[in-house]
Amino acid sequence: MEYVILAVAIAVVAIGAITGFVVSGRRRKTLPPSPRTPVGAPPAEPQVGEEAETPRDTPTRTIEEVDLPPGVTAPEETVSPEAAVAAPPLEVPEPTAGRLVRLRARLSRSQTSLGKGLLSLLAREHLDEDTWEEIEDTLLTADVGVTPTQELVDRLRTRVKVLGTRTPDELRGLLREELVALIGTEADRSLHSARHSAAEAGRPSVVLVVGVNGVGKTTTTGKLARVLVADGRSVVLGAADTFRAAAADQLQTWGERVGARTVRGPEGGDPASVAFDAVKEGIAEGADTVLVDTAGRLHTKTGLMDELGKVKRVVEKHGPVDEVLLVLDATTGQNGLVQARVFAEVVDITGIVLTKLDGTAKGGIVIAVQRELGVPVKLIGLGEGADDLAPFEPGAFVDALIGD
């Protein structure tokens, strides 16, 4: 009996297994076929070794070349984190019109002793010879120069005698008129920085910046770029001071702030070659002005001064140089005149830039250096700020000297 029950159980298990296989087979047959990969679906992950697929010869197309279905737009271009770092925004320089007026307070603080000293002497009840000698000494101490001082004193003596009464306002007006006349208002103090006409091949204006070491020449060149950009000029900078790598780096930093490109060469390279390339680049870019910063020449070194002459001659292969600006440190006083004389013998100076004028009470250097060179002061530096370089205005300068 036990054998019969065991046989029945085995039979039942066998029948159940056969039935499962049949049902499973039928289900597999009724499953729908796997869908094909649609066009445009992302490819499978790449395989390596023996499982790697053979590269297709079919040329690939960019997203711009693929015709997308209606209503489907192309994805925006992705940017790497490194490329996503935005360039620093360009700075907007202060307008140059009236800049000297805005800086007048800074200038007047350093020039008070000259203006107030003259006014107090002229206001004395009796203007005897001793008083006039004090007036002369005050002017000479301010570096006005011997000849201009004598001219001013002679005119003041005549006008005071004719004036008779001397109220403070009358004295201030009289002194202002004579100082402005001594500085001069007829000279052309504008910077020739406009692009030349098509008749002159449309080349940019070329400005050479020269001066000895330590006067702030490279900084002045950078500030001058800001002055020109503020006046609507496009500028290319030439870092022809190849003896100091720091000078080229400094100039490039100034240029990047206002969007001006800097042309530079290898350290210790030929300055004339860099200057030539800068003008060439300015022509190619259609720039308005090319500013060339030269090395700080020591006026006692004949070889270096000769090299400066070479820079000018090489640049002139593109056309005449429009401006040669001599940068002088106002605090050096009469020593600046010695520098000016030597530079004027090597290149034709067209204008003077006086730096650090806010740091000295010797404002008379403006008058003296103009008389020495016969060229006008065109720009003055009144601080370390980026926009502290101002076009020189005789009236505003004298107002700062004597006070309003």
TrEMBL record:
GO-annotated biological processes: SRP-dependent cotranslational protein targeting to membrane
Subcellular locations according to the entry: Cell membrane; Cytoplasm
Entry binding sites for GTP: 211-218, 293-297, 355-358
Alphabetized UniProt keyword annotations: Cell membrane, Cytoplasm, GTP-binding, Hydrolase, Membrane, Nucleotide-binding, Receptor
Documented EC number(s): 3.6.5.4
Segments forming domain SRP54-type proteins GTP-binding: 376-389
UniProt-listed SMART domains: AAA, SRP54, SRP54_N
Top-rank EC class of the record's enzyme: hydrolase
Pfam families, per the entry: SRP54, SRP54_N
Its membrane topology: Peripheral membrane protein
Annotated GO CC locations: cytoplasm; plasma membrane
Catalytic activity entry: GTP + H2O = GDP + phosphate + H(+)
Pro residues composition-biased segments: 32-45
Annotated stretches, region: Disordered: 27-72
Compositional bias annotation for Basic and acidic residues: 53-64
Coiled-coil residues: none
A GO MF label: GTPase activity
Record-stated family: Belongs to the GTP-binding SRP family. FtsY subfamily.
Matching NCBIfam families: ftsY
Main function: Involved in targeting and insertion of nascent membrane proteins into the cytoplasmic membrane. Acts as a receptor for the complex formed by the signal recognition particle (SRP) and the ribosome-nascent chain (RNC).
Subunit structure of this chain's protein: Part of the signal recognition particle protein translocation system, which is composed of SRP and FtsY.
Protein name: Signal recognition particle receptor FtsY
Organism from which the protein derives: Peterkaempfera bronchialis
